[in-house]
Amino acid sequence: MLEDKNPKRTSVSDLGEFGLIDHLTKYFDPIHESTIKGVGDDAAVLDFKGHKTVISTDLLVEGVHFDLSYTPLKHLGYKAVMVNISDIYAMNALATQITVSIAASNRFPLEALEELYAGIQLACKNYKVDLIGGDTTSSNKGLLISITAIGKATDNEITYRSGAQPNDLLVTSGDIGGAYMGLQILEREKEVFKVNPNNQPDLSPYSYIIERQLKPEARKDIPQLLKDLEVKPTSMIDISDGLSSEIIHICKNSKVGCNLFEDKIPLDPQVISTCEEFDLNSTTVALSGGEDYELLFTISQDDYPKIKANPHLTVIGHMTAEGEGIHLITRANTKIPITSMGWNSYSENNNETEKD
Ligand SMILES: [Mg+2]
């Protein structure tokens, strides 16, 4: 669907490995005091001066995690950073640095890698993250991107999946299910394009959900918001695989149960209308879709007055004793056990994968 409008193709081998790293990273300037040494030596040097260091890594593989027929490389670079720093925010920490490693086949000229790095650079700028290192190498087939995100937090701020207590409230940021429905639109248009390459689809009715899929934004604002509201979450996780599997992670790690209320799940109107169009149940999409990169967390009931009027936050349930199990309370007030429907990269029927 996406035509290559840039006919210039410079072979990466013309630059050599060191030339390539220099070329791709020359416009990245570190801004954090904690970055003592970034790109340019054998290793980076960081100093968090008494803060704890938080580290998370993700690997993205072409054909498994992304499809370049509808994903512009600049968006892919941006999203790859979001996927990683989202895990840092999910620890209630501040993302400060990343390393980026890529393996690309000779199908990718220098200009393509420049596009990818333009997206990485925009993400670094918007989220105030320093690129401090990485590696580039060739691949026999396709594109691989591995990003390590580093962040900092005080001992008191760091929030694990394991701290939820019975009677705590379950809260999500933003709305759920948009990225999955955006993917359904892009996959549908890809099939239409195969049959009729001259077809120009009107995607404007789906602009929000397509953006949720192609250019997600990590919730950097939420840890800061909670700090400002003087709310210390008791547990936290980011929603990468769908609400159900994230709730199960919190419940298992915290040894609690949960009641999730169907009528409380925040859905964008575009998610609701597109679900109707595809004859999908919007609750199922929210539970098992994935890639929303919102933050899901629990708070003590005492903190409820501090968050209740906030437009970014929605209480969607509460935690229970472990023995009570994990349930969806439907609009009809029936109780349905929640099972993990998070996507599995080893299943043959889908092309998504679980991400921490
Ligand atoms: Mg995660």
Automatic annotation (TrEMBL):
One of its GO terms (biological process) is thiamine diphosphate biosynthetic process. SUPFAM superfamilies: PurM C-terminal domain-like, PurM N-terminal domain-like. Mg(2+) 5 binds at D241. ATP binds at Y117, G134, D135, R161, S240. Keywords: ATP-binding, Kinase, Magnesium, Metal-binding, Nucleotide-binding, Thiamine biosynthesis, Transferase. It catalyses: thiamine phosphate + ATP = thiamine diphosphate + ADP. Substrate binds at H65, E291, W343. Residues 40-152 form the PurM-like N-terminal domain. Mg(2+) 4 binds at D42, S56, D87. Its EC number is 2.7.4.16. One of its GO terms (molecular function) is ATP binding. Mg(2+) 2 binds at D58, D87. Mg(2+) 3 binds at D42, D87, D238. It comes from the Bacteria. Pathway: Cofactor biosynthesis; thiamine diphosphate biosynthesis; thiamine diphosphate from thiamine phosphate: step 1/1. Pfam families: AIRS (PF00586). Mg(2+) 1 binds at T57, D58, D135. Catalyzes the ATP-dependent phosphorylation of thiamine-monophosphate (TMP) to form thiamine-pyrophosphate (TPP), the active form of vitamin B1. Belongs to the thiamine-monophosphate kinase family. Reaction mechanism of ThiL seems to utilize a direct, inline transfer of the gamma-phosphate of ATP to TMP rather than a phosphorylated enzyme intermediate. This is Thiamine-monophosphate kinase. It comes from Zhouia amylolytica AD3. The lineage of its organism: Bacteria, Pseudomonadati, Bacteroidota, Flavobacteriia, Flavobacteriales.
